[in-house]
Amino acid sequence: MRDGIYGPITTAAVKDFQRANNLSADGVVGSKTWSVLNATSTKPASKPGSKDSVVNIGDEGAVVRAVQKKLGITADGVFGPKTLTAVKAFQTDKGLAVDGIVGVRTTYALAKTDAASAKKSTPKSSSKKVARKAARPTLVSPNAPYELPFPSGYAAPISQGPYGSASHYKWNDKHHVDFAVPAGTPVVASASGVVIMAEYNTGGGNTILIRDASGHAMEYAHLSSMNVVPGQRVVQGQQIARSGNTGNSTGPHLHWGIVDGRNFVSIKIAESKELGTSYVPGTLAMSRNG
Questions:
Q1: Could you tell me which of 275, 285, 284, 271 has the C-alpha nearest to residue 212?
Q2: Which residue of 24, 93, 265, 279 has the smallest Cβ count within 10 Å?
Q3: Looking at the structure, do residues 144 and 216 belong to the same domain, yes or no?
Q4: Which intervals of the chain are annotated as region Disordered (predicted)?
Q5: How confident is the model at residue 23 (pLDDT cuts 50, 70, 90)?
Q6: How does pLDDT run across 38-50, given as a tens digit for each residue?
Q7: What are the pLDDT digits (tens) for 243-274?
């Protein structure tokens, strides 16, 4: 480890190495561990998303901060879109499975890497260009109400509202709304803006973030397909995707809500022209978007 600090990520890597080589997994580099380290180049094996995963999208804390430091990015301790992009770039650079999960193999590779070399793997120019474009999206007013994310005239059943006990009680989704629509339902932009993310993650599956004039981003998750790319400008009512059942989902639906586009933190309940801020489970939401 080149930074000289025996922190959480190094401890995790040592334990993984010990388990892979049938040693006592205590995280301490004793004589037996040194012996195996000096005699072999064995790397631990793992399956993405297994119980051996260290951190993943949506996690936060000291271990996430340690990973971010090793990647050479801002260490805020929150595993959001920027960290996901950096992890995937690192995995690509190291010839690892590109799943965005910091599991055993990625942890092992990070433990042998210094921040300077890891940072080289992180895309720079494209993200900066997107950030510059995202600062000036087209919207009449930063306080303009949103419109429901479906074509005008479509009635979407609300299966869970903000603060729902089923799953809407966490830092990243407490203000969100779930619409129980069939997979393949057209999804349209609730506000004009710039796409800052359109990719798969293990939690939200196929996910789109669109930053509008408020400075925040609208999240559309669990999509079956996506029609837009980062940096693309969209207008309110434009079709951007089709709903689905991807990622951590118990059935076809659209997960919709306002987040901080930098870290997925849920900001507030979306005020729509159709329903204001009242989204009652078991009722139909009639869209007038378009």
A1: 271
A2: 24
A3: yes
A4: 115-138
A5: confident
A6: 554 334 434 434 4
A7: 999 998 889 999 999 998 888 888 898 999 99
Q: What pLDDT digit, counting tens, does each position of 41-86 carry?
A: 334 434 434 444 567 888 887 778 888 888 888 888 888 888 888 8
CATH at residue 281? 2.70.70.10
Catalytic residue, from 175, 216, 253, 255: name it. Answer: 253
Show which of 93, 123, 153 is a domain's final residue. 123
Residue among 140, 157, 59, 49 at smallest CA distance from 103: 49
pTM higher than the cut 0.70? no
C-alpha to C-alpha distance for 108 and 161, rounded to whole angstroms:
41
Check if 253 is active-site.
yes
* 59: containing domain: 8-123
Residue 102 pairs with which residues in a beta bridge? Answer: 55
